[in-house]
Design a protein that fits this description.
With 231 residues, the protein is mainly β. It has three helices and twelve strands. The relative contact order is 0.17.
Length: 231
């Protein structure tokens, strides 16, 4: 009798998830929550962050930058090149955030998303879908998206990109910083005119001030060079 009770207890333990263990949701329900999360996402009014970029291929590059952004207004300050610290390399630009999640995430109205499976991520599950655009998506096409099982926002987007002389595939990872969903790592492999190339971009050091002073985006004054008086 004790043996039967022990076997029954073991069977129930296997059949019922342990307390605190995440249960897999229906894949369509995940997509509904994903669409709602994208619709409600907010972009920071002001943001400061660092990023490093490494390129290997026809042109090798190692740089670090500090970015100050309010809307589309951007101050891009190069802080090192090929491991050497630099100063004075500042560009004031007006451009949208090309890596913003609202720009790159595949919309259910634009992509067919086919459930591939769920995988554990700490105490929750993430959900991965193959992505195929309903219509030609242009030079950038998402091929796969993994949806975070807590926020229901993408934490990994895989893509292919085609431009003149360039064919690339890669991934962009995202994570939560404060109340915002920001990029953390991009990895790209490409062929440029048939030659292999790689790129890695890592983001970090995020801060979200209420605003930035107008002087942040003032064009830097050119440095006056010394002159030699004529004889």
């Amino acid at each position: 009798m004790k043996r039967i009770a022990a076997v029954l207890a073991c069977t129930l333990a296997l059949a019922c998830p342990a307390r605190g263990t995440a249960q897999e949701l229906d894949s369509q329900l995940v997509l509904e929550r994903y669409a709602a999360a994208l619709a409600g996402i907010a972009a920071p009014k002001a943001v400061v962050f660092n990023y490093s970029v490494s390129q290997a291929g026809p042109h090798n590059l190692e740089q670090t930058h500090t970015i100050f952004r309010v809307g589309t207004l951007t101050r891009d300050q190069t802080t090192s090149v090929d491991g050497d610290a630099v100063t004075g390399q500042i560009r004031i630009l007006s451009r949208s955030d090309r890596y913003a999640i609202v720009r790159l995430a595949p919309r259910v109205s634009e992509y067919s998303l086919l459930f591939l499976g769920a995988r554990r991520n700490g105490k929750h599950l993430d959900y991965t879908y193959a992505a195929a655009p309903y219509a030609p998506a242009g030079p950038f096409t998402v091929t796969e998206v993994t949806i975070d099982g807590v926020t229901y926002l993408p934490n990994l987007i895989r893509f292919v990109a085609i431009a003149e002389g360039v064919k690339a595939n890669g991934s962009i990872a995202y994570a939560k910083f404060g109340k915002y969903w920001m990029p953390t790592l991009a990895l790209v492999s490409a062929k440029i005119d048939g030659k292999p190339a790689r790129e890695r971009i890592a983001w970090g050091g995020y801060a979200f001030p209420a605003t930035l002073p107008p002087s942040t985006f003032a064009q830097p004054k050119p440095v006056a060079l010394p002159t030699i008086a004529p004889f």
